[in-house]
C-alpha cells in the first residue's frame, strides 16, 4: 500500500478529517457523532464513491464497495474503536462483521519480477466473492486492535464537540486536524481572554457605587 491521501485533498472533497495512517480510521471518521443531528459524510452513493477514490492508491485494486456494505463495515469499526476508548466490550456483531469482511477475500504472497529485481506482493483472491477493499480495511482494523503499541496512540479529538478519531504520532497531538478543531479552540480561548479583559476594563471605568 502507498502513502495516505493528503488531508488537504480530503477536505477539498468535503471530508474534514482524513489521511490517517489507517484507512479504517479514515472510514470511522466519515460519521460525525458529536454533531446534532449526526452527520453522515458518506450518506450518498456519490460521496461513497468519492471517498473510495481518495483511498484507492493504498488499497488493492478491484470494484468500489457499495454504500450499504461500506456503511456496515464503518459501523462495526466505529463500535470496536469506541469500545476500546470507553473501556467496554464491543458488540459481538461488530466483531463478527469485521472478521467476515476480512475472511471474504483470502490473500497469498506472490513474487513479481521488475526492473529492480524480484519483489514480493500480496495477491487478493476474489474468485469466490468478497470485496478486496473492504477486506483490506477490515484487516487493518484487526491489526490495529492486535497491536498494543499502536492502539495506545488511538485518541478522540480533544474538542468536546468533535468525535473524530486518530492515531497520535506524538503525545502533544490533541486535535483531529489543526486547521479545524485546533483553530476553533484557539479562537474560543482568545475570545474568552479578550472578553474577560474587556469586562475588566469596563469595571475599572465604572464610577464608584454604579455596580
Topology:
Layout: H1 7-12, H2 23-28, E1 31-32, E2 39-40, H3 45-55, H4 67-86, H5 92-103, E3 107-114, E4 117-124, H6 132-145, H7 148-151, E5 154-156, E6 165-167, H8 178-205
Antiparallel strand pairs: 1-2, 3-4, 5-6
Helix pairs in contact: 4-5, 4-6, 5-6
Explain what you see.
Helices cover 48% and strands 12% of the residues. The protein folds into 2 domains: 7-170, Jann2411-like fold (Orthogonal Bundle); 177-211. The mean pLDDT is 89. Helix 4 packs across helix 5. A hairpin with a 2-residue loop joins strand 3 and strand 4 (117-124). The protein is built from 8 helices and 6 strands; from the N terminus they run H-H-E-E-H-H-H-E-E-H-H-E-E-H. It has 211 residues and is an alpha+beta fold. The strands form 3 sheets. The protein has a two-stranded antiparallel ribbon.
Amino acid at each position: 500500500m502507498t502513502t495516505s491521501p493528503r488531508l488537504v485533498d480530503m477536505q477539498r472533497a468535503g471530508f474534514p478529517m482524513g489521511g490517517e495512517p489507517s484507512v479504517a480510521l479514515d472510514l470511522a471518521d466519515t460519521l460525525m457523532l458529536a454533531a446534532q443531528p449526526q452527520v453522515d459524510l458518506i450518506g450518498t452513493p456519490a460521496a461513497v464513491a468519492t471517498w473510495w477514490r481518495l483511498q484507492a492508491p493504498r488499497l488493492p485494486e478491484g470494484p468500489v464497495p457499495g454504500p450499504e456494505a461500506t456503511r456496515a463495515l464503518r459501523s462495526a469499526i466505529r463500535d470496536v474503536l469506541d469500545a476500546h476508548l470507553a473501556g467496554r466490550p464491543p458488540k459481538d456483531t461488530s466483531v463478527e462483521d469485521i472478521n467476515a469482511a476480512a475472511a471474504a477475500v483470502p490473500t497469498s504472497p506472490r513474487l513479481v519480477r521488475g526492473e529492480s529485481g524480484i519483489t514480493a506482493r500480496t495477491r487478493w483472491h476474489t474468485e469466490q466473492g468478497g470485496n478486496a477493499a473492504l477486506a483490506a480495511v477490515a484487516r487493518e482494523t484487526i491489526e490495529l486492535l492486535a497491536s498494543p503499541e499502536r492502539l495506545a496512540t488511538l485518541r478522540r479529538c480533544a474538542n468536546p464537540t468533535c468525535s473524530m478519531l486518530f492515531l497520535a504520532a506524538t503525545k502533544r497531538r490533541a486535535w483531529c486536524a489543526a486547521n479545524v478543531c485546533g483553530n476553533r479552540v484557539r479562537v474560543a480561548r482568545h475570545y474568552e481572554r479578550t472578553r474577560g479583559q474587556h469586562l475588566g476594563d469596563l469595571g475599572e471605568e465604572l464610577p464608584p457605587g454604579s455596580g
